[in-house]
Design a protein that fits this description.
By secondary structure, this protein is α+β, with helices and mostly antiparallel strands. The protein is built from 5 helices and 7 strands. A hairpin with a 6-residue loop joins strand 6 and strand 7.
């Protein structure tokens, strides 16, 4: 196991929500660049050398957390892509708690204000991204998704490698 590789922490959705986001991603993301399933990233770069502690922290948090509802509020431009925006008090609280716990380890990207989103298109021409944003926005109606756990991944430069899923307590 390469402990120098960073870890990524994502939110795990209920099956219907995941299926929706992943289908959208498979439909709109350039196939030659789509190596990972749809996801909501909580932390982009956690230090692999602290993998044991990070796993323990995530397991402890997940064991005390009940599943919760996320509000899918709209779509936003990523410049060269499109993402669904999500909101949840529980999500903000969870991320804030873990960020404080791991404060000394966080890279600048993970210290920024967290704007929860699920990217369904990226790395395309800005004109194509604007067209998709308009197309999806025309028929968008807010909806809900359920958060059911957390997933920890290794990032070694290619497709992510799943370390483990941590289900919330029902």
């Amino acid at each position: 196991m390469d402990h120098a590789a960073p870890l990524i922490l994502t939110l795990q959705f209920d099956e219907p929500s995941f299926a929706f986001f992943d289908e959208q991603r498979r439909r709109y993301f350039p196939p030659e660049r789509n190596f990972i399933p749809a996801h909501l990233t909580l932390f982009h770069h956690l230090p692999g050398e602290h993998a044991g502690t990070i796993r323990q922290d995530v397991e402890a948090y997940a064991s005390r957390q009940h599943p919760f509802t996320l509000h899918v509020k709209g779509l936003r431009s990523l410049g060269r892509g499109v993402a669904y925006t999500l909101e949840s008090v529980e999500l903000a609280e969870m991320r804030r708690h873990l960020a404080m716990q791991w404060n000394d380890w966080l890279k600048p990207q993970d210290r920024q204000n967290h704007l929860p989103h699920v990217t369904v298109q990226n790395k395309v021409d800005p004109t194509a991204a604007r067209a998709l944003l308009e197309e999806l926005s025309d028929s968008f109606e807010p909806f809900r998704a359920e958060a059911v756990g957390l997933e920890l991944w290794w990032y070694r430069g290619g497709p992510w490698e799943r370390v483990r899923a941590f289900r919330f307590t029902p």
